């Protein structure tokens, strides 16, 4: 049996009967459950945060056992080369099924990611986005950097009234964005929230911090060294030839040279600030509960 015949037979046996007849073979939806025996795809099913398997890797997973049985003398590197050649010459209908499954799974995979609020672009960035394609079509040989430079020159000629209009639009978009930041977590179900906290951990953390700022969450006080710097900066001013980093380094050395007794007053200030912070947090929580 030829590889193409085997492929068509494999697909025919794993198709849900809702496809169409192509050259005498029913080509429809490849059943995703038929790949569960593959170690790679089994790992995908075991991990709910794993990205969908790409078409070629799914194809390789389906047929590598067959190729090993037919060519036991080949090393893995040679088997991979053989599979790559078969994939390159695979029937377009069969290859299309693999791609369609991948595309469907990627849409499902990315759905929660699309719910993350997107910060609106600034007025100049919006101007570039709206006019970049026009200049590129008129001057296809221009590099992107040169197009942006030209747009920068054009931006200088934009009337102030137009810029005010764009700024007003940006303010409106920013208000909508901030409202989305405050409320979007509540619109997610438990699975979506869990998914995003794993795959977009840094972004979710940043958005959560931004949400707290928008809701006027109390700011946590700094450490005792910061109080030392603020309280003693007039007594130890920066030298004329000293930058901020060098000055802070010198202040850090002074802090380390203080005795525990000398540090006590700054530690006390930090303690009182933390007590006030904790009171403010509790008050903030009560206010949030009354808004619900």
From TrEMBL:
GO terms for biological process: regulation of transcription by RNA polymerase II. PROSITE patterns: HMG_BOX_2. Residues 49-117, 117-185, 218-285 bind DNA. One of its GO terms (cellular component) is nucleus. It holds the Pfam family HMG_box. Keywords: Coiled coil, DNA-binding, Nucleus. Residues 160-187 form a coiled coil. The keyword DNA-binding applies. SMART domains: HMG. GO terms for molecular function: DNA binding. Residues 49-117, 117-185, 218-285 form the HMG box domain. This is Transcription factor A, mitochondrial-like. The gene is LOC116297037.
